[in-house]
Specification:
Elements: E1 2-8, E2 17-23, E3 26-32, H1 45-48, H2 50-54, E4 64-66, E5 72-74, H3 77-95, E6 100-104, H4 112-124, E7 130-132, H5 134-137, H6 139-149, E8 157-158, E9 165-169, H7 173-176, H8 186-195, E10 199-203, H9 209-213, E11 216-218, H10 225-238, H11 244-250, E12 251-252, H12 257-261, H13 266-273, H14 279-292, E13 296-300, H15 302-305, H16 310-323, E14 333-334, E15 353-357, E16 363-365, H17 374-383, E17 393-397, H18 401-404, H19 408-416, E18 420-424, E19 437-439, E20 460-461, H20 479-493, H21 505-511, H22 517-526, H23 535-539, E21 548-549, H24 555-558, E22 566-567, H25 571-584, E23 593-596, H26 612-615, E24 623-625, H27 627-633, E25 640-644, E26 649-656, E27 664-666, H28 673-676, H29 681-684, E28 712-718, E29 728-729
Parallel strand pairs: 6-7, 6-17, 9-10, 9-13, 10-11, 12-22, 17-18, 18-19, 23-27, 24-26
Antiparallel strand pairs: 1-2, 2-3, 4-5, 4-19, 8-14, 15-16, 20-21, 23-28, 25-26, 25-28, 26-29
Helix pairs in contact: 3-20, 4-20, 6-16, 10-13, 10-14, 10-16, 13-14, 17-19
Bound molecules: ligand MGD (2 copies), iron/sulfur cluster and molybdenum atom.
């Protein structure tokens, strides 16, 4: 008998509706869902590959523990959980709570059980060594929201469906399908802006898929976003185009801006932007267009967040939306409201900044340290048995920092040296292979619930229930259960830090393994505001409830600043300005090459490459090089090149392309499976290096801690023909 199940795809933020057909315990087909009111039939090849992912024979089905000889052996769940808990508790007993490191990978926020489980784990073990995908990609947004709105999760999204001018900075939604902006069928929404006479402007060094669609593309020099956006904000003020009524009603600190922004004149920033002769005029015109086109929205995502001035760039982006009166205004940027959005008004949603610093002097943001210090935090422990706050044991939940964090080779060596590493992962991937215990939860398609996260970032108000696609096999262990059981076992064994682990937490530790994420989600809906919602009401609409356009008038509820106003000039941002002003009169960046990333539709960060249907026949991990740069270095299309940075060198296939300006080369991230030993068969056969064997953990934004993953200085040379394909060399090896 065939059953049909409708549910949203959990692979990326777009959350497209899909239709699954199931026979017995097999998913026989996955299709788009034309009746989903939000995605209206849109989906991408990754969603369609969910059956392949679910049934991938290389997925781990049983826990693995490392034997004395170093090889992995299968183990029962109780045995593996005991081994993991013993190892973690021993380190806590000897070195204290902060010796435990925790990394939460990107898939965590896409899975209700993983979210709840990791929140339990982090509540029970409040170590300072917390890292996550957020501390790789979102600290500039979290910090700036915290400083300006008093709430790190008060995040306005562009009202795509009503905007008349949309400025997209460092995002490629046609490929990423949107981030901190849940917008399925984003391509159709962007084309609709143009169809109603509006305009799409894209700021991106590469002529991306989104840039090609745009009415105007500004191929900005990597890392120059803060300069461009601050100059635009200054121009809005200089031309007297700011929305004074809005500023007077909602904002504080407006009068300080003219002086603070004074240095960023179009003429002074122009030589740094890489936009050629007319750059100053472009800045003047664009500022006027932004301030006089109603409504307009500025949307800024990953590109600038992983540069050395990401905090300032995000601030400037908010300033533009505020000065032009487009915040909380239809067609500008608005606050989404999902059925569980009330959770984001709880104290944790406020966030924090600089309440403590790492031994390297890096401030916490939202309770986390930046991933670029993780390797050093481990190495400090190896060098000194008493080093405070050194990481000596670690749990990685659904993450793969060996491929995703800068200087991956150094990090791999550090993780391999830990006293105890536990990986909660469905594959024996590049990070999990260094673990002492690998705990593989069952497929996410066996679990259901309600998405607490992405409706809070969606471009329409949405509400859906997520049913399991296939009932969980008896005895299988789900994501939540793995983490809750591990938490309880470690709690039982480890001594308490009385100050940071109050007794009351014991109740949570005991109760956690018996809680059900689905039931908690249903309870959350009932408690929801502004209106409670019954789970049954959602379940009776299998494609989701009808969506609604985002409403205006939600700003007051999102503002948790002491005076109930948006802080336009928070001290940490103002102080950081001096750093940028100092660069203004320096000569523009020297002529060498810089490396940027590029996402691909058929990849999802560092995984999904074990599915032949997504992998495709062609090597996609190519080095894009401008024809002028290729000629100057004797590089041929289809030939091979060695790319070298301060921290390492890798070899990659060359793709000559004028998509990039001269001086900028690009490699996608999330590859390097063969070099880093992924156990999956299809992965092991892939070509292409890990770009994070080149990114430099010494380059970061001192304000937010974010790693510089784009704009990394490199040299490129033709590869020595007898070098092995995909070979990665370690630190300091010169190009061939
Ligand atoms: N150079 C460069 N580096 C980057 C980026 C870039 O643009 N350029 N992007 C950065 C960004 S934005 C991010 S978010 C990070 C992402 O990097 P990470 O947070 O490390 O996440 P992923 O690479 O997605 O790895 C996910 C891991 O979880 C496993 N997994 C998948 N599904 C599940 C599941 O349901 N349960 C469990 N337990 N495990 C699962 C996978 O096998 C994989 O090992 O990478 C960052 N790194
Ligand atoms: N198919 C697919 N979808 C994904 C993912 C994936 O791996 N694959 N990852 C998901 C994740 S974790 C995230 S966070 C989102 C990210 O979603 P997006 O922010 O849309 O991510 P990217 O495609 O990396 O877009 C960043 C853009 O910034 C440009 N860029 C590089 N340096 C600079 C710079 O200095 N300034 C400016 N202005 N631009 C610059 C790059 O060329 C790139 O086009 O995507 C999500 N969706
Ligand atoms: S865009 Fe693709 S991966 Fe993202 S939610 Fe939709 S179907 Fe899934
Ligand atoms: Mo991300």
């Amino acid at each position: 008998m065939t059953t049909t199940v409708h549910r949203a795809c959990h692979l990326c933020e777009a959350s497209c509706g899909l239709t699954f057909e199931v026979e017995g315990d097999r998913i026989t087909s996955v299709r788009n869902d034309p009746d989903d009111p939000f995605s209206r039939g849109f989906c991408c090849p990754k969603g369609l590959a969910l059956a392949d992912l679910h049934h991938d024979p290389d997925r781990l089905t049983t826990p693995l523990v490392r034997r004395a000889d170093g090889a992995f052996a299968p183990a029962s769940w109780p045995e593996a959980l005991d081994r993991a808990a013993d190892g973690l508790a021993r380190v806590i007993a000897r070195h204290g709570l902060d010796a435990l490191g925790v990394y939460l990978g990107n898939p965590v926020v896409h899975h209700l059980g993983a979210m709840l489980g990791t929140e339990v784990f982090r509540a029970l073990f409040p170590t300072r060594n917390r890292y996550s995908a957020n501390s790789q990609d979102a600290t500039p947004h979290l910090l700036v929201n915290h400083l300006m709105f008093g709430m790190q999760l008060a995040h306005p999204v562009p009202d795509l469906d009503r905007a008349r001018l949309l400025l997209v900075v460092g995002a490629n939604p046609l490929v990423s399908n949107g981030s901190l902006m849940t917008a399925p069928r984003v391509g159709a929404r962007l084309r609709a802006v143009q169809a109603r006479g509006g305009k799409l402007v894209v700021v991106d060094p590469r002529r991306t898929e989104t840039a090609r669609l745009a009415d105007e593309h500004l191929p900005l020099r990597p890392g120059a976003d803060a300069l461009l956006l601050l100059a635009l904000a200054r121009e809005v003020l200089a031309q007297g185009l700011e929305d004074r009524d809005f500023l007077a009603r909602w904002c504080q600190g407006h009068e300080r801006l003219p002086a603070l922004l004074a240095p960023f004149t179009p003429e002074r920033v122009a030589p740094h932007l890489g936009l050629g002769e007319g750059a100053a005029a472009t800045v003047r015109r664009l500022a006027r267009e932004l301030a006089t086109t109603r409504p307009a929205a500025v949307y800024l995502r990953l590109g600038p967040c992983v540069t050395a001035t990401g905090g300032l760039a995000v601030w400037a982006g908010h300033l533009l939306n505020l000065l032009t009166g487009n915040l909380d205004r239809a067609g500008g940027v608005l606050f989404p409201e999902g059925p569980l959005s009330w959770l984001f008004r709880l104290p944790f949603a406020r966030g924090s900044f600089d309440s403590h610093r790492s031994p390297q002097g890096r401030p916490e943001v939202g309770g986390e340290y930046p991933c670029s210090i993780l390797a050093e935090q481990v190495e400090r422990g190896l060098a000194d048995p008493r080093a405070p706050e050194a990481v000596r044991a670690m749990v990685v939940f659904a993450g793969n920092p060996v491929l995703s964090a800068p200087n991956g080779r150094r990090l791999a060596r550090a993780l391999a040296s830990l006293e105890c590493l536990v990986a909660v992962d469905c594959y024996l991937g590049e990070t999990a292979r260094h673990a002492h215990v690998v705990l593989p939860p069952r497929s996410a398609l066996h679990d259901g619930g309600c998405d607490p996260v992405f409706p809070h970032f969606a471009v329409e108000d949405v509400a859906r229930w997520t049913p399991p696609v296939v009932p969980p096999p008896p005895g299988s262990v789900g994501e939540y259960e793995v983490i809750a059981r591990l938490s309880a076992e470690v709690w039982r064994r480890a001594p308490r830090d009385r100050r940071r682990q109050p007794r009351l937490l014991g109740l949570l530790a005991r109760a956690a393994p018996r809680l059900s994420p689905e039931r908690l989600a249903a309870l959350g809906l009932r408690l929801g505001s502004p209106a409670p919602l019954a789970r049954a009401a959602l379940e009776s609409a299998p494609h989701g409830l009808p969506t609604r356009p985002l409403a205006e008038g939600r700003l007051a509820r999102r503002l948790l600043t002491p005076d109930g106003r948006v802080a336009l000039a928070p001290a940490p941002l103002v102080e950081d300005l001096a750093r940028l002003v100092a660069t203004l009169d320096a000569p523009p960046a020297p002529g060498g090459l810089v490396l940027v990333g590029r996402r691909q539709l058929r990849s999802n960060n560092s995984w999904l490459h074990n599915l032949p249907a997504l992998l495709g026949p062609r090597n996609r991990c190519t080095l894009l090089v401008h024809p002028d740069d290729a000629r100057a270095r004797g590089l041929a299309h289809g030939g091979r090149a060695v790319v070298t940075s301060r921290v390492g060198a890798v070899e990659a296939e060359v793709e000559v392309s004028d998509e990039l300006p001269p001086g900028v080369v690009s490699l996608p991230h999330g590859w390097g499976h063969a070099a880093h030993g992924h156990a999956g068969r299809a992965c092991a056969a892939t070509d292409g290096p890990s770009v994070n064997d080149l990114t430099d953990d010494a380059l970061f934004d001192p304000l937010t801690g974010a790693s510089v993953l784009n704009g990394v200085p490199v040299t490129v040379a033709a590869a020595n023909p007898d070098q092995a394909a995909g070979r990665t060399t370690s630190t300091g090896v010169a190009s061939g």
